[in-house]
């Protein structure tokens, strides 16, 4: 644009005749030429300023919040001015963009948190695996509580033996149930033959009554044995298992404690520069956390072992007495003592034949 202005000024200063030749300038026109030259320079300077202002406006742009739209054209009245701040489109777009950015930040925060959790889990797994392998090959040290570990081993051995008792008691229940069912069928057969064999009516009738009585006593004994099995099952598979679950958590905490203890010991033997001291401080903090967890679970195991032993003695004293009295009364043929045993331990039997008709009703 400056070059065009210069060319325009030069054209105005040098007149050209019809033939293309430059005309001669009279001496008395020098003042007029000087004035025209001064006007050209002023116009060029003004145009340059206008160009710079236009470029500044193009670069920075107008402030839309301070501008207005004039409806009446140039020179119109102020009544036709509409402030651009009243237009809501830009505000709505800005709100939508802010919501999208907030959602992206929240998603990014969740992803970073999950990544950090996986990183901690992987580091902890690596340390524990390293400690476990070191212990297995005899290269690493482990924290040992001889008294507590002896009690834990006794509990595991007791659980195995009680599981064997439970298995045998269930087998006895199954066999005895089959025997009662066989006696029931045999009593039905004797009763049928007593009606169809007049010459042996009394003999078949006696045997039918005997099998009926045995079935009744057998069902009573089955109630006592089932109660015994149920109590042993609760003791073994719930009470003992709950204590063993706490023991497993304690052993896992012991392994983690030893892993972080070994890590702290290795860092303490290394250099003591600024980076190493920062790592030692972080390892010391993790060590203290694992130590508190280990001691807390150790205390829980000691308490549960104590209460388990008390509960085991109390439960087994009652159940062994029930089992002895019920078996003795049944094989002694003492129906009254057998029923009294069930009342003593608050065992309620389902009435015989409640689910199906008795063998007498079927006749």
Brief digest:
The chain is an all-alpha fold and 363 residues long.
| Percent range of helical residues | over 70%
Helices, by number, come to 7
Q: Taking Cα atoms only, what radius of gyration do you get, to the nearest Å?
A: 52 Å
Report the portion of residues in β strands: under 5%
Average pLDDT over all residues: 76
Q: Name the structural class.
A: mainly alpha
Looking at the structure, what is the overall shape?
Answer: elongated
Profile the largest sheet: 2 strands, antiparallel
- What's the β-strand tally? 2
Give an overview in words.
- The chain has helices at residues 2-13, 30-60, 89-136, 146-196, 201-268, 274-331, 335-344; strands at 68-70, 81-83.
- Strands 1-2 form a two-stranded antiparallel ribbon.
- It starts with a helix and ends in a 19-residue tail after the last helix.
- The chain has seven helices and two strands; from the N terminus they run ααββααααα.
- It is mainly alpha-helical and 363 residues long.
- Helix 1 packs antiparallel against helix 2 and helix 4 packs antiparallel against helix 5.
- It is elongated and about 110 Å long.
């Amino acid at each position: 644009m400056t070059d065009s202005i210069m060319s325009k000024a030069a054209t105005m200063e040098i007149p050209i005749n019809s033939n293309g030749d430059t005309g001669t300038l009279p001496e008395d026109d020098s003042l007029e030429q000087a004035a025209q030259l001064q006007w050209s320079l002023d116009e060029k300077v003004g145009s340059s300023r206008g160009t710079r202002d236009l470029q500044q406006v193009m670069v920075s742009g107008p402030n839309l919040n301070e501008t207005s739209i004039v409806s009446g054209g140039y020179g119109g009245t102020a009544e036709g001015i509409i402030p651009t701040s009243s237009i809501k489109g830009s505000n709505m777009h800005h709100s939508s963009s802010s919501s999208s950015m907030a959602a992206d930040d929240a998603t990014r925060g969740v992803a970073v948190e999950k990544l950090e959790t996986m990183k901690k889990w992987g580091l902890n797994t690596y340390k524990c695996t390293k400690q476990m392998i070191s212990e297995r090959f005899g290269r690493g040290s482990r924290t040992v509580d001889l008294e507590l570990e002896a009690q834990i081993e006794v509990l595991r051995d007791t659980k195995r033996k009680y599981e064997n008792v439970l298995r045998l008691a269930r087998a006895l229940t199954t066999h005895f149930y089959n025997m009662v069912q066989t006696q029931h069928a045999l009593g039905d057969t004797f009763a049928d033959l007593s009606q169809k064999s007049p010459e042996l009516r009394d003999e078949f009738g006696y045997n039918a009554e005997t099998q009926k009585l045995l079935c009744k006593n057998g069902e009573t004994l089955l109630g006592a044995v089932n109660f015994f099995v149920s109590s042993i099952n609760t003791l073994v598979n719930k009470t003992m298992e709950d204590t063993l679950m706490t023991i497993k958590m304690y052993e896992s905490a012991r392994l983690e404690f030893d892993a972080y203890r070994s890590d702290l010991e290795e860092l303490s033997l290394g250099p003591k520069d600024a980076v190493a001291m920062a790592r030692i401080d972080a390892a010391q903090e993790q060590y203290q956390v694992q130590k508190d967890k280990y001691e807390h679970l150790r205390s829980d195991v000691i308490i549960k072992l104590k209460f388990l032993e008390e509960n085991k003695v109390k439960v087994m004293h009652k159940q062994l007495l029930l089992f002895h009295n019920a078996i003795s009364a049944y094989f002694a043929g003492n129906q009254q003592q057998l029923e009294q045993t069930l009342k003593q331990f608050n065992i309620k039997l389902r009435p015989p034949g409640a689910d199906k008709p008795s063998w007498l009703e079927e006749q």
